[in-house]
Design brief:
The chain has about 375 residues and is mainly alpha-helical. It has a three-stranded antiparallel beta sheet. The protein contains 14 helices and three strands. It has helices at about 15-40, 45-60, 60-85, 95-110, 115-145, 150-170, 205-220, 225-235, 235-240, 245-275, 280, 285-295, 300-325, 330-350; strands spanning about 5-10, 350-355, 375.
């Protein structure tokens, strides 16, 4: 309407280092403030709730071990998503790739008698990674060849993977020894990952996640392919002008992202459940939560190590307040949604100036070229 101000976004030519550090911290603080208001609305003291979350996640050895356990799939999937998002390939389907990785690992564990016992677990990890990578390649090829939005296709493939798991555990793979429950038979000992003491921490997968974060960081920062990924993400037009192959970049990052999510699925069935279960029994949304992990880490693979631990603690603490304060199970999803919104907003402010523009009184910001402006 004429006379009303408009909000304009003007791309920053340079982002101060302090802003890159402060933005995610302030985003989380703002999200926690909003969540505190929601606690007040439902009649819960926010200080009590946050105290329960902290003590539930970090206040005991059991809570700490559960936090690490939940951080493992978030770390693997989060590192893969950080790589994909760096190239502006928005993989929203890590949940489906995780489930496919779990399916492939189960096939090796239960239906590959020719695999020697010492090689069974390594073969399960290879199969899970390949399954997740292939599942991720479909949206990448559709994006690169047909310009079909990868957000939509990768998300749709989550539901396909979920129904495939349901078909298997309710149908041909349903275990005769599981008393009618939608599970496969239990994995043999050669297909079970060792745990740390009496905890549920399957430490081989934890070490794999830490190694993946380090290697992904080196890959992004020190290799030619990593350079192409960074350029494609920061300026796709410049990447095309320089002759960089977008199809190759999209396929590469989606394969890496899908493979790491598939490894997370292997860890869940071989390290936690020792069988394939219905989809929510394998993953209560780890693939979706890993999106928050990646953005909160500012798409840094090394940063994912810290943010996966923090979000894992939030998941454990959310379970604690459900029991202690009688809050519904959806509380954790509210946490995740609010945090994601504020983290994305914080990322926006690090890349753009935001100003109100009044008719007839537009004042250009020094150092900003007109062609970089975007009106909303």
């Amino acid at each position: 309407m004429k006379g009303l101000p408009r909000i304009r976004l003007e791309k920053r030519l340079d982002t101060p280092r302090w802003l890159n550090i402060a933005a995610p911290v302030l985003s989380v603080v703002a999200a926690l403030a909003v969540i505190a208001v929601l606690f007040l609305v439902v009649g819960v003291n926010p200080l009590v709730a946050y105290g329960r979350i902290f003590t539930g996640a970090f206040g005991s050895l059991y809570g700490l071990s559960e936090t690490v356990t939940k951080a493992i799939p978030l770390m693997l999937a989060g590192v893969g998503l950080a790589v994909a998002f760096r190239a502006r390939v928005y993989n929203i389907g890590a949940e489906g790739q995780l489930l496919v990785g779990a399916i492939c690992a189960t096939a090796v564990a239960l239906f590959a008698p020719g695999v020697p016992d010492p090689l069974r677990l390594p073969t399960m990890f290879v199969a899970g990674a390949l399954g997740g990578a292939l599942w991720g390649l479909v949206p990448a090829l559709l994006k690169a060849r047909l310009r079909i939005d990868e957000v939509l296709t990768s998300l749709m493939m989550v539901y396909i993977a979920s129904e495939l798991v349901n078909h298997l555990v309710y149908g041909p793979w349903k275990g005769p020894t599981e008393w009618g429950f939608p599970y496969t038979d239990k994995f043999p000992l050669s297909a079970q990952l060792p745990r740390l003491g009496v905890t549920r921490i399957h430490y081989p997968t934890l070490l794999l996640g830490l190694l993946a974060a380090v290697l992904a960081n080196v890959f992004i920062r020190r290799t030619r392919w990593g350079f192409e990924i960074r350029v494609t993400g920061e300026n796709p037009e410049a990447a095309r002008y320089a002759g960089m192959n977008y199809l190759r970049t999209a396929v590469l990052v989606m394969a890496i992202s899908g493979a790491l999510a598939g490894l997370a699925g292997v860890g869940e069935v071989a390290g936690i459940h020792y069988r394939l279960r219905y989809p929510q029994g394998i993953s209560p949304g780890y693939g979706f939560t890993a999106i928050i992990v990646a953005w909160l880490a500012r798409l840094s693979p090394l940063g994912v190590i810290l943010t996966s631990f923090l979000i894992g603690g939030l998941l454990v603490g959310g379970d604690a307040i459900q029991i202690a304060l009688g809050l519904p199970s959806a509380t954790v999803y509210v946490f995740n949604g609010v945090i994601l919104l504020f983290v994305l907003a914080g990322d926006l402010f690090t890349r753009y100036w935001v100003r109100l523009e009044f008719p007839g009184r537009a004042v250009p910001v020094p150092g900003v070229r007109p062609e970089t402006e975007e009106a909303v």
